[in-house]
Amino acid sequence: MSSCSRRRHELSKWLEQDELDLFIVSSRPNLRYLTGFTGEGIGIVSPSEAVLITDRRYEVEAGEEAPDCQVIFAEQGHLQQFASYLAELGQCRAGFESQHLSYSSHKKLAELADAAELVPVEEVVEGQRAIKDDTEIAAIRRAAQVVSEAVPVVVAELAVGITERELSLRLREAILQTGGDDVSFEPVVAFGENSARAHAVPTQRKIAEGDIVLIDAGGKVDGYCSDMTRTVVFGELNKKFIEVYKTVRQAQQAALAAIVPGAVAAEVDAQAREVIDSSPYKGRFGHSLGHGVGLEVHEGPKLGKKSEEVLAAGQVVTNEPGIYLPGWGGVRLEELLLVTEQGAQPLTYAPYLGL
Amino acid sequence: MSSCSRRRHELSKWLEQDELDLFIVSSRPNLRYLTGFTGEGIGIVSPSEAVLITDRRYEVEAGEEAPDCQVIFAEQGHLQQFASYLAELGQCRAGFESQHLSYSSHKKLAELADAAELVPVEEVVEGQRAIKDDTEIAAIRRAAQVVSEAVPVVVAELAVGITERELSLRLREAILQTGGDDVSFEPVVAFGENSARAHAVPTQRKIAEGDIVLIDAGGKVDGYCSDMTRTVVFGELNKKFIEVYKTVRQAQQAALAAIVPGAVAAEVDAQAREVIDSSPYKGRFGHSLGHGVGLEVHEGPKLGKKSEEVLAAGQVVTNEPGIYLPGWGGVRLEELLLVTEQGAQPLTYAPYLGL
Questions:
Q1: Using one digit for the tens of pLDDT, what is the confidence trace for B135-167?
Q2: Residue B269 domain flag
Q3: Residue A65: CATH number of its domain
Q4: What's the number of domains chain A is made of?
């Protein structure tokens, strides 16, 4: 049984429990997870079959990637074609991804296939995806290796005059050269006070002596992502940087120790946040501790202040506290981890500063 | 008046006509268009004010990019924060983007702010965005220039052994070097039979003598995109390629002549399609003729078989017919055009093969 058909089989068990006849897959990563197809389309999973609605732009991919799905090439829009399919089925209970289907697409479907009962479903495939199987873990390991090798290469090449954009491009190149199929997101490179932006976009700013250098990047291997952040200084470290860095690192280590199966995500976040909030930088860790990583670079589980999710073996999550001081800069340190029965196992491994 | 406040002023006139008290902006490009803010958030536009709900990750950007908006930093989720805002307003008629708000977000909003009447709205800001103002046209012109200069540079560098991925990376670099802030999408590079995939993703395939080389790329300047495709051959042209290329070029020129204000998009598409469908390659043009380009690389108007939209001066659209023959390869030629009262004005200008 292929990975995809195994996943559909799992989903079908859930469908039967919920007395649903079929499940409509409109989210692209969920579609890939369940069918292998990497293009745009709509999937229909039922206990007896898997159907893929796409269009002729993806003729080659559909045949190669989803050999065990019935493929329908839409003549009009995918949604229109799917509505016809559903209307032909007549009375049925069809689950749909309520977080991925827009209000207007839902309305159109409900009008065009009025014999079908559309049942909103949240996070079912996302829940399956949160626990990675061996093939997935192997791909993520390779994606983690790629970024762990690539970041030190570009850090070693830092030189007067290089811009954030040039370094970001160089990092992309290094990620491809170390074996990535792609980057998992546009590499973030922020110099000096730009590093205070938690989601900085690389600019034409040239590096200057003494600049903080924050690098947040990931590679993609076989569709799976990695995500890692390191912060260094171009030149001499100053006292304030050392203090901030050590605080972030302590926060990260506190969280690391708490990442075990059964831990509540909010409590893991609290471990890191407490370290920062009992330092002079109280309140300057302005985002969540981490997130799951897989086919998407941001997926479940979420590790935030209010996350009630319970961690489980087989999850892959980031641990990325940071301190951001507008006008000065920021330090973020991020590791990608596999949750195992023995605790968290780091997948990324670029060196930290020996402070 | 800034561009953004002028756009909000236009939107407000429409709100008043439709007796809406406010408009909820959840689409990211629409948010940028109306506020200048480039991060994630929710915007609220009313005749009297503009409010931006985001979070502390975007503290710096919010202040710099949206100086004339009231900024609220959400402590929980953006949607939750917005629901509180809406609940405080009490009774009101609030338009929402029904194509961008998910079924479940709509449901949550309706529950949390039950005094508000949520009115589904389609394509209003998209309609505004379809007609570009002078600042926008200037940015798109530069983005078009960037890709027009960059593609010939990499075509001239084609050499035995280079892979699709390497060429795609090289093209990205050339786009940045010619003045692009970024690429507008991952550059598509397809060799040989891979060019039959209308949406090919660059692979590790190495170029071989006689390969078709299809390059589809765009640059970004000040947030605005360009989009252009050229197809060449690495080595000698053969008879079949020449025949296919000429047919596509004729189709493109037929469409070009038809792109004038007042033309119905489907009829423009038909001009190109007829050329291909009366050739030996009938039915092998498996996608729409083109699309609008602006803050998004795909936006309105759509130029397809069934598009009833009427073209207007100030629109920026692509004209990109193609012929795809699985197992052999494909040829696509794409120009970016500004619709003017005098007809279509090409913005991209990389040379074609002199066939």
A1: 999 999 999 999 999 999 999 999 999 999 999
A2: yes
A3: 3.40.350.10
A4: 2
